[in-house]
Automatic annotation (TrEMBL), chain A:
This is MaoC family dehydratase. It holds the Pfam family FAS1_DH_region. It comes from the Bacteria. Residues 38-116 form the FAS1-like dehydratase domain.
UniProtKB/TrEMBL annotation, chain B:
Belongs to the enoyl-CoA hydratase/isomerase family. This is Acyl dehydratase. It comes from Glycomyces terrestris. GO terms for molecular function: fatty acid synthase activity. PANTHER family: (3R)-HYDROXYACYL-ACP DEHYDRATASE SUBUNIT HADB, 3-HYDROXYACYL-THIOESTER DEHYDRATASE HTDX-RELATED.
Length: 132, 137
C-alpha cells in the first residue's frame, strides 16, 4: 500500500536536462518515426519517469516497482519542442485511489523550458496489492 | 480543411509488426528496462503470459500511425493533446506479433480535429481508445 499522505506533494524540480538530437533520433528510430527534429509525441516519458525516481525509491512512500503496470498516459503539449531544448521536470503526486486492495497512483509532471510551461504529462500507475 | 475530416470518418488503418528486438530497442531509447518487456522468465514470474510490450511502445506506434497519416494526407497539424488507457497488454511471443491501429475522426471544431484511435493485437483491444487533438495550421 502506498503512503497516501504523499498526495499533493511535489518533488523538487529537476536540474535542466538537455533534449539531445541523439536521444530524439534514437527514440524516433525505435518507433519507426521519421526524424524531423521535432520531439516525438511520447518522448517526454523518457524524462518524466526518471524525474519521479526520488519518489519511486523513497521507502516511506512504499512503491514496489515490480508490482507496477502502466494504466493511463496523457500529454498536453503547450508548445512544440525541438531537439536541443533544455527542460526541467516537476513531479506532483496528484492522487492515490485504492481499488480492491490495489492502488492507482496518478502523477502530474510539468515540463518547462526557457520560455515557461512547455508540456504537462500525466501518468497513472496500477500498483498491485498483496492479494494480487 | 481536408474534405475527409468529418466526424465518424475512418482516416487511417494500419498494422505494425512487433518483435522482441523492437522492445529491446525501445527499452534502450526510452530508458525503461523493466524485464517484463524483455525477458520471458521475468514476465512469467510477474504473472504475465509472456513478454509484453511497453504500454508506451504501443502508444508510440499510435503516434506513428497519426504522423504517417498526416504526412500522407499532406495535413500540417500540431498535436496538442494525446492520451491512452492501457486496457490489455500486447503479448509478444518469441515469433513476434502485430498491432493493428485504426483512427477515426471524433470531432471537428474549426481548425481542431479530435481523433479516436483503437489498437488491437491478437484479437484483443489493447487500448481503451487513445485520443489525439490536432490543430491544423
Amino acid at each position: 500500500m502506498l503512503n497516501t499522505s504523499y498526495v499533493g506533494r511535489s518533488l523538487p524540480t529537476t536540474e535542466p536536462v538537455a533534449v539531445t538530437a541523439e536521444s530524439v533520433t534514437r527514440f524516433a528510430e525505435a518507433l519507426g518515426l521519421a526524424d524531423t527534429g521535432l520531439v516525438p509525441p511520447t518522448y517526454l516519458i523518457s524524462l518524466t519517469l526518471p524525474a519521479a525516481d526520488r519518489l519511486i525509491d523513497d521507502p516511506d512512500f512504499g512503491l514496489d516497482w515490480s508490482r507496477v503496470l502502466h494504466r493511463e498516459q496523457r500529454f498536453a503539449y503547450h508548445r512544440e519542442l525541438r531537439a536541443g531544448a533544455e527542460v526541467t521536470c516537476a513531479v506532483t503526486v496528484e492522487s492515490i485511489k485504492t481499488v480492491a486492495g490495489s492502488d492507482l497512483l496518478s502523477l502530474r509532471t510539468e515540463v518547462r523550458d526557457a520560455e515557461g510551461l512547455a508540456a504537462e504529462v500525466w501518468t497513472t500507475l496500477f500498483v498491485a496489492g498483496d492479494a494480487q | 480543411m481536408q474534405p475527409e475530416l468529418e466526424a465518424g470518418a475512418v482516416v487511417f488503418s494500419t498494422s505494425y509488426p512487433v518483435a522482441r528486438a523492437d522492445l529491446q530497442r525501445y527499452a534502450d531509447a526510452s530508458g525503461d528496462h523493466n524485464p517484463i518487456h524483455l525477458d520471458e522468465a521475468a514476465a512469467k514470474a510477474a504473472g504475465l503470459p509472456d513478454v509484453i510490450a511497453h504500454g508506451m511502445y504501443t502508444m508510440g506506434l499510435v503516434s506513428r500511425a497519426i504522423l504517417e497519416w498526416l504526412a500522407a494526407a499532406g495535413v500540417d497539424a500540431r498535436m496538442t493533446e494525446f492520451s491512452a488507457r492501457f486496457a490489455k497488454p500486447v503479448v509478444v511471443p518469441a515469433g513476434g506479433t502485430a498491432v493493428e491501429i485504426e483512427g477515426k475522426v471524433r470531432r471537428v471544431e474549426g481548425d481542431t480535429v479530435e481523433i479516436a484511435v483503437t489498437a488491437t493485437s491478437a484479437g484483443e483491444r489493447v487500448l481503451a481508445p487513445a485520443r489525439a487533438t490536432l490543430v491544423v495550421r
